[in-house]
Task: inverse folding
């Protein structure tokens, strides 16, 4: 019997996705000199065999001064011939088995690491409330800075279309710049870009308009939006619902619902050092394995466009129930594709009924040293180490190697930190040359 997950999905612009599974965006951090390369093509050629009808890239940044990681791909101007050829090869690699390849475009704002930029742009000069000194105090943007960001998103989207990508996703979640504007804790402006929600949402809505103008009416444009920041005084679920109503008046093709930011990393399935703020959502009649799916279900009632839920899906039955119950039109899958790039294809073929996520089996130690520790620092170390293992798996796949199952949690974390510092030194050297 054919699974509901194998049904195609028609998008408002007229395009069609082959099925209801999406390889969700995961930062690759493998760029050399902030350019796409053979590693990206090799990685997405592997993921093209995932069985997912849609593949989303990780962050492609619109400004090299505002990176999520020093290993990001950047498109902040017209690419030269070599970089355009690499972007085309990247897009084609993801399309080899018939899946659609979308580029996620982003600006990190105050979540730019200090090693990259000690004084990044942000809505207001409010630094991240995190220990460790990894992020600098941002500089409040002026109107011209904001306009350049909107133009940057539009330019990047047009390059994506020219390079052969099948769509773009505007990253408005997880505490990056657009999400910062939506968040009243980060955005304390008193002009037309701050204050009331209508003003805080202006950057997102005007970016959507500019991107649509740049790519045309027949090219898929998606948005990734937080259901909430899960912080006291942050972007709330009720505000999310209103933003979705505004987005529904635009020509959006797919809305991905997620949540959290660096201060409150619900996207990693954990709480930050500050207790998370409860967000009112209808209680489900059954426990959901995916954290954001009930939020997606309520958002879908407001949305004129298809909705994708990402985060925590592992079993085929849970994915099928989410789609058949009308909670989501698409299912986003991330970390399991680092463990087994072909996992979803095996699931659709009936070989397995549950995806494996090796990183989640890793821990600093037993008991209070584990991921469920009551000590916030240990909980965070476990989460960051698990995340680092996924980065190392992505690197291995991009080099044609098997994923490093024997690599330990702390070793993965240390290797990731060492790689990032090396990437920063390389960028600094190139800038001085």
Result:
């Amino acid at each position: 019997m054919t699974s509901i997950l194998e049904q195609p999905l028609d998008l408002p612009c007229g395009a069609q996705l082959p099925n209801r599974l999406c390889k969700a965006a995961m930062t690759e951090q493998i760029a050399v000199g902030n350019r796409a390369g053979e590693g990206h093509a090799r990685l997405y050629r592997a993921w093209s065999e995932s069985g997912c009808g849609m593949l989303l890239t990780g962050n492609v940044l619109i400004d090299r001064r505002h990176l999520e990681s020093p290993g990001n791909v950047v498109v902040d101007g017209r690419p030269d011939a070599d970089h355009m050829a690499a972007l085309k090869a990247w897009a084609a690699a993801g399309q080899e088995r018939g899946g659609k390849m979308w580029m996620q475009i982003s600006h990190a704002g105050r979540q730019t690491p200090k090693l990259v930029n000690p004084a990044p742009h942000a809505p207001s000069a409010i630094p991240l409330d995190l220990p460790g000194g990894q992020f600098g105090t941002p500089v409040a943007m002026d109107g011209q800075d904001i306009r350049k960001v909107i133009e940057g998103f539009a330019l990047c989207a047009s390059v994506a279309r020219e390079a052969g990508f099948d769509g773009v996703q505007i990253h408005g979640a997880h505490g990056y710049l657009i999400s910062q504007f939506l968040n009243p804790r980060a955005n304390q402006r008193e002009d037309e870009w701050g204050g009331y929600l209508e003003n805080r949402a202006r950057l997102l809505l005007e970016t959507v308009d500019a991107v649509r103008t740049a790519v045309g009416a027949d090219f898929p444009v998606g948005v990734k939006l937080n259901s909430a920041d899960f912080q006291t005084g942050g972007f709330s679920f009720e505000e999310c619902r209103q933003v979705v109503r505004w987005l529904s008046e635009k020509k959006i093709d797919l809305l991905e619902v997620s949540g959290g930011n660096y201060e409150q990393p619900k996207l990693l399935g954990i709480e930050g050092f500050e207790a998370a703020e409860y967000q009112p959502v209808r209680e489900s009649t059954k426990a959901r394995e995916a954290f954001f799916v009930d939020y997606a279900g309520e958002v879908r009632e407001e949305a004129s466009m298809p909705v994708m839920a990402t985060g925590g899906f592992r079993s085929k039955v849970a994915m099928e129930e989410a789609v058949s119950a009308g909670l989501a039109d698409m299912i986003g899958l991330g970390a399991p594709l680092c463990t087994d790039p072909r996992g979803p294809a095996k699931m659709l073929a009936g070989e397995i009924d549950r995806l494996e996520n090796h990183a989640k089996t890793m821990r600093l130690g037993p008991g209070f040293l584990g991921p469920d520790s009551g000590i916030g620092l240990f909980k965070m170390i476990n989460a960051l180490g698990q995340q680092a293992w996924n980065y190392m798996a992505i690197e291995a796949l991009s080099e044609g190697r098997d994923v490093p199952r024997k690599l330990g949690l702390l070793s993965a974390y240390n290797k990731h930190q060492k790689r990032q510092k090396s990437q920063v030194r390389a960028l600094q050297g190139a800038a001085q040359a």
User: Anything to note?
Assistant: The chain has 13 helices and 13 strands. Residues 282 and 346 are 33 Å apart (CA to CA). The chain has a mean pLDDT of 92. The two ends are 61 Å apart (CA to CA).
